[in-house]
């Protein structure tokens, strides 16, 4: 599906009324998800004080949305998902890795992530995030179903086979492994997704702690 064309929005919004995008939700602190931003959503999105909008669509933001972003200094990032056939998930693992690289960068937030309907592509991207966060598979699928118009076995296969590698940025978000990570903010090697760090010194420290733990078991 292509990007919605630029046209007058058929809905008239009374003054003072703000309308969030379809399927809008708060994912984590300063991370939001939803559908394609339309003019009637701009006032609501402005209240979020966004720094970045990540578009997971065939085309970049249309003229109306792009103009609104430019006028407010919002960075626009576009990733065109390379979906397969109708029987395959509409997002590929390499694209999911690129998406996570942006989502996990603290300098990008507040960040709004969207596809066309805020459902399939965005849902798979968030499922990838939840797997990195060590969520249980039933919890990930349950969250996907809250926003999805459809759910197929290809979605389950996408999640099962997603193993990274995911690179943690130099300035990661503070919520990634909140309550799970060690005091340093780094995750012991217990994830089903291969994790690497943009700051190699951090990865070396994590590996050293893992080796020390393994040695105590001998």
Automatic annotation (TrEMBL):
InterPro entries: Prot-tyrosine_phosphatase-like, Siw14-like. It comes from the Eukaryota. Signal peptide: none annotated. It holds the Pfam family Y_phosphatase2. GO terms for molecular function: phosphatase activity. This is Protein-tyrosine phosphatase. It comes from Choiromyces venosus 120613-1.
